[in-house]
Write a structure and sequence with these properties.
This is XRE family transcriptional regulator. Belongs to the short-chain fatty acyl-CoA assimilation regulator (ScfR) family. The protein is mainly α and 397 residues long. It is built from 17 helices and 8 strands. α2 packs across α3, α5 runs parallel beside α15 and α12 packs across α13. The longest helix is centred in the first third of the chain and has 22 residues.
Length: 397
C-alpha cells in the first residue's frame, strides 16, 4: 500500500508473524474435550434461535441443548452434524482450540435498547465477537493502526482523572487527535485511523432496523457497529458514529439504554462534529431552513442537529424548536431535505478490515484459508469483511 494509505496498515515482517497453522478438516466426532459449549451458544445466538427451537429442529429435548451449553453433557456425533446444519456453521465451528472473546449484551451500548429484543441483542453481540476474531486473525499478519483512545487498554477503560462533561470530553478528544476545530471530513475513517474497528453490514437481516447502532470497549479492540438501515442518511450515519465514539470515550461502565448515558453521548457527538464555539456564530439569528441546510452540508450534519444547536445556544425557544421540527418533517414529507446516501461519501464506509485482508491476500492469504482458520463459511467471512451490499433495498408493492 502507498505511504498515504488512510488505514495505516502494514504487513508484519516474517519474524513477527504468528503461527497461523490450523487443520483443514476436523472430524465430525470432535473427541473428548474438543467440543466447545461456548461456540454452540455463539452459533445459536448468531442464528437468532432459542434453545427450544434448536432442540425441535434436531429432534432432541430443550433440556439436552441446555446441558450442552452448560457443559454438563456433550452432543453425540450425529447431534453435532444436525446442530451444524441448523445453525449454518461447519461442524468444525463447534470445536475448541481457537481464540474466543466473550461479550455479554450488558457489555455493549445499544442506542435503541427498548426496540431491541433480547434475541437481537444476543445476535448483535455474537456478531461483534466474530468481528473481533476476524480482526485477531488479520492482526497476526498485518499491523493495524495503534489504538488511540484515551483511557483504553486491552478491553478496559480507565477514566481516572478524565472529565465527565461530554462537551469537554469531545473538545479534549479533538485536541488529542489533532482535528482542530473545523469540519471532520471523514468521520468513520477517522475512527479507523485511530485503531477503532467499524463495521457496516446487514449482519441480522431485517432485524438491524431495530438495533440502529452499538459499540463496545470490552474487547481487545474497541468496536463500533453501524447498520445499513441508517446508511441512506449520511448525516445521521456520521452522528451515529460520533455518538458511539462518545460511549467509548466516556462510559467505561455500560448501562445499555440508560437515558443519561444516551443523552451524554448525543451531547458529545454534537460537540465533536460541530464545536459550539465555531458553529454558534454561523447559526442564522432567525429560523431559516435554507441557511441551516447549507450550513449542514458544510459541516456534515443534519438540519435536525443544527436545530438542536439553535435551541441550545438560545437562538430559538423550546416552543419554536418544537414547531420547527414539525415543519421540517412536513418539508421532508413533501420531498425537500432529502437524505443523502453514504455511497457518495467514501470516507464514511468502513474499509479497515477489507483493506487488511487485501494486504494479507497480497502476501498469500486466501479467503478459503481464512474461512478455514476461523471455521466459518465463505459467505459468512465475506459478510464480516463488509462485502455485503449496504444500499437500501427497493421493495415494490
Amino acid at each position: 500500500m502507498s505511504p498515504n494509505d488512510p488505514t495505516q496498515l502494514r504487513l508484519l515482517p516474517d519474524s513477527e508473524l504468528t503461527d497461523c497453522g490450523h487443520p483443514d478438516v476436523i472430524a465430525t466426532d470432535l473427541g473428548d474435550g474438543a467440543f466447545d459449549a461456548a461456540r454452540l451458544t455463539q452459533a445459536r445466538r448468531l442464528a437468532g434461535l432459542t434453545k427450544k427451537s434448536v432442540a425441535q429442529q434436531i429432534g432432541v429435548s430443550s433440556v439436552s441443548v441446555g446441558q450442552w451449553e452448560a457443559r454438563t453433557a456433550k452432543p453425540r456425533p450425529d447431534n453435532l452434524e444436525a446442530l451444524a446444519a441448523v445453525l449454518d456453521v461447519p461442524v468444525a465451528f463447534l470445536a475448541a482450540g481457537r481464540p474466543y472473546a466473550r461479550l455479554d449484551a450488558a457489555g455493549a451500548h445499544f442506542r435503541s435498547l427498548r426496540r431491541t429484543p433480547v434475541s437481537q441483542r444476543d445476535k448483535a453481540t455474537a456478531f461483534a465477537e466474530q468481528i473481533w476474531e476476524l480482526t485477531y486473525a488479520l492482526e497476526k499478519r498485518v499491523r493495524f493502526p495503534v489504538i488511540d483512545l484515551p483511557g483504553f487498554s486491552a478491553g478496559e477503560v480507565d477514566r481516572t482523572g478524565m472529565t465527565a462533561d461530554p462537551i469537554a470530553a469531545a473538545q479534549e478528544l479533538r485536541r488529542h487527535w489533532g482535528l482542530g476545530t473545523t469540519r471532520i471530513p471523514r468521520m468513520v475513517r477517522t475512527l479507523e485511523q485511530h485503531g477503532i474497528v467499524v463495521t457496516l453490514v446487514h449482519f441480522a437481516g431485517d432485524d438491524t432496523k431495530n438495533i440502529d447502532a452499538f459499540s463496545t470497549s470490552r474487547l481487545p479492540r474497541p468496536i463500533v457497529v453501524l447498520t445499513p438501515d441508517r446508511a441512506d442518511d449520511v448525516y445521521r450515519h456520521r452522528f451515529s458514529a460520533a455518538h458511539e465514539l462518545g460511549h467509548l470515550v466516556m462510559h467505561e461502565d455500560c448501562v445499555p439504554g440508560d437515558a443519561q448515558q444516551e443523552k451524554e453521548a448525543d451531547i458529545f457527538a454534537a460537540e465533536f462534529l460541530t464545536p459550539q464555539a465555531q458553529i454558534t456564530p454561523l447559526l442564522p439569528p432567525r429560523l431559516d431552513f435554507k441557511k441551516l441546510g447549507e450550513l449542514g452540508m458544510q459541516w456534515g450534519v443534519s438540519v435536525d442537529s443544527l436545530l438542536r444547536r439553535c435551541k441550545e445556544v438560545g437562538a430559538i425557544s423550546e416552543p419554536t424548536y418544537r414547531r420547527a421540527y414539525q415543519r421540517l418533517n412536513a418539508l421532508r414529507h413533501n420531498g425537500l431535505f432529502r437524505n443523502e446516501s453514504i455511497h457518495g461519501y467514501p470516507g464514511e464506509i468502513p474499509v479497515l478490515l477489507r483493506s487488511a485482508f487485501e494486504m494479507a491476500e497480497s502476501d498469500g492469504l486466501t479467503l478459503k484459508d481464512l474461512a478455514a482458520e476461523l471455521r466459518i463459511t465463505l459467505p459468512r467471512l465475506r459478510l464480516l469483511l463488509g462485502d455485503g451490499d449496504t444500499r437500501p433495498q427497493l421493495k415494490l408493492v
